[in-house]
Design brief:
Elements (H helix, E strand, L loop, with lengths): L8 E5 L4 H15 L4 E6 L1 H4 L3 H9 L4 E5 L25 H9 L1 H9 L8 E4 L5 H9 L3 E4 L4 H13 L10 E3 L8 E3 L15 H11 L4 E4 L7 H11 L4 E3 L10 H5 L10 H9 L6 E5 L8 H13 L3 E6 L6 H9 L2 H4 L4 E5 L4 H5 L4 E6 L3 H10 L3 E3 L6 H11 L3 E3 L20 H12 L3 H20 L5 H17 L4
Parallel strand pairs: 1-2, 1-4, 2-3, 4-5, 5-8, 8-9, 10-11, 10-13, 11-12, 13-14, 14-15
Antiparallel strand pairs: 6-7
Helix pairs in contact: 7-9, 12-18, 16-19
């Protein structure tokens, strides 16, 4: 055994989807601030979105690198340039996309020998089962990163174990058993892996799930104080103490420049002008509405959301992702002169939004979100109340965490999850009046509104402190580094 361990080098391989790449980039920065050399594996069109972010990090002295691999889109039957899940034109091509991800294995293994110093571990994102074989081949730990919290995992585990949802109608409420809190759900709100109505990718999900448990450790983008009882349950179910809660990773972006240019994509809105607009608003007076990078909404559903914001009595920022699916909505906005009639009161961001920057502004009074885990954490970290509008995946679990456990949110009242790629089959899942009512409840002054804001501020302060020296997540990063260091002593 060597008397000293060489420099540690972590290789991060994210699932190529915005909700997975962005926290991995934040994680890279967080690890690098602890003196770790980090390489992020990416592809050319994905790298465009965060190259400037990485350059800023390296200019500040952090050792973060990019490894570009060719994404075999056409070889896997995908359209040219389809290197990210948000670019998939239809659900029918998801299987092709996973095939393309598997084809990255040979390229990465060839590139492994060019990485210096020799990689010490792989932190692998979800849906990349080949990383298990690669880590074993090179004799290094493979650490798994899911991108979801412990609460959602515990909900799924308890439902699967008990089968409590079986023999229930879609709208019939059931209690998730053996959880620390009273959590009620319906079958219609469950994610696809528990929903027999979406069997087209069941074999893909099963094969991916089979290797998720083959990991030397697990990193979770959460902090222990947020869901402490569920972190304990998560560790117990996994049967291993090698679980490190290192979040919220987005909180590593402390400077305004880091927040405004974080994984920036094309946008028609200037961040400086946006902040100037917010500066003119009263504290806690603006609604920020954003439903994620892969929103499962049809044009009529988008219109209901917009009209709900308009009929409220508050200023608002509404984010609309650009792309083919948004074309009819943008036409409606133009025909109805929506921006003109809300001039001075509402702003529409078309494309990328500097979400962390906006949420940190004192004028933001609430965050209307789809409850994806990244957005949920970013809202929690900003210390703002949340209006929940879940759409699919684990988002209905996160809604219950926000509303029932943390008690910092109010639900719009969406009663059924939509299946991504099949949104047109589900009709309108939220109505303008429900949006307006939920917003008014969250923004109300006095009483429960003030109490909700107080709780949100307190949790936000704990979140930001977690990654600082002495915080729970800071300690867990140190423990993760120590684990990797101990693991590689055998081959150094």
């Amino acid at each position: 055994m060597a008397s000293e361990v060489k420099e540690l080098h972590f290789v991060l391989i994210p699932l190529l989807s915005p909700g997975h790449v962005i926290p991995m980039v934040d994680m890279a920065k967080l690890l690098a601030t602890h003196g770790i050399i980090v390489t992020i594996v990416t592809t050319p069109l994905n790298a465009v979105k965060f190259t400037s972010t990485i350059q800023r990090f390296t200019d500040s002295g952090l050792q973060i690198r990019l490894l570009h691999l060719h994404f075999p889109a056409t070889e896997a039957g995908l359209p040219p340039g389809c290197e990210n899940m948000e670019k998939l034109p239809s659900r029918d091509l998801i299987r092709n996309f996973y095939t393309a991800l598997t084809m990255l294995q040979d390229q990465f293994e060839q590139a492994f020998h060019t990485l210096h110093p020799r990689p010490s571990c792989i932190i692998s994102g979800k849906n990349l089962p080949w990383t298990v074989q690669t880590a074993r081949k090179f004799g290094i730990p493979r650490i798994f990163f899911d991108g979801m919290g412990c609460f959602s995992f515990c909900c799924t585990h308890q439902i699967e174990s008990s089968q409590v949802h079986q023999n229930k109608s879609n709208s019939e409420t059931f209690l998730v058993p053996n959880l620390p809190d009273r959590i009620e759900l319906t079958r219609a709100k469950l994610p696809e892996n528990l929903n027999p109505g979406s069997p087209d990718l069941s074999d893909v999900r099963d094969s991916i799930k089979a290797v998720e448990s083959i990991a030397d450790g697990i990193v979770v983008n959460t902090f222990e104080e947020l869901e402490s009882e569920y972190v304990k349950m998560f560790k117990k179910v996994k049967g291993d103490e090698k679980v490190w809660c290192i979040g919220p990773v987005s909180a590593c972006n402390r400077l305004k420049s880091d927040k405004s240019e974080r994984c920036q994509n094309e946008s028609e809105t200037d961040s400086t002008e946006l902040i100037t607009w917010l500066d003119k608003r009263s504290p806690s007076s603006v609604i920020y509405a954003c439903l994620g990078s892969i929103p499962g909404l049809t044009t009529p559903q988008w219109i209901e959301l917009g009209l709900g914001l308009e009929t409220s009595t508050h200023s608002f920022i509404w984010v609309i992702r650009k792309g083919e699916k948004s074309e009819n909505l943008l036409k409606w906005i133009e025909i109805e002169r929506f921006e003109e009639r809300n001039k001075g009161r509402g702003i529409i961001i078309k494309g990328w939004s500097p979400q962390v920057l906006i949420l940190s502004h004192p004028s933001i009074g609430c965050f209307l979100t789809h409850c994806g885990w990244n957005s949920t954490l970013e809202g929690v970290s900003a210390g703002v109340p949340i209006v929940t509008c879940p759409l699919f995946a684990e988002q209905f679990y996160n809604e219950r965490l926000v509303v029932d456990v943390l008690k910092i949110g109010v639900s719009v009242g969406v009663e059924s999850a939509v299946t991504w790629g099949l949104e047109h089959k589900f009709g309108v899942v939220m109505k303008r009046e429900d949006v307006r009512k939920a917003v008014e409840v969250v923004m109300e002054k006095g009483g429960e509104g003030d109490e909700r804001r107080r709780r949100a501020r307190e949790i936000g302060e704990v979140a930001r402190n977690a990654i600082e020296e002495g915080g729970s997540s800071y300690f867990n990063v140190k423990m993760l580094i120590q684990f990797v260091q101990d693991s590689i002593k055998n081959y150094v």
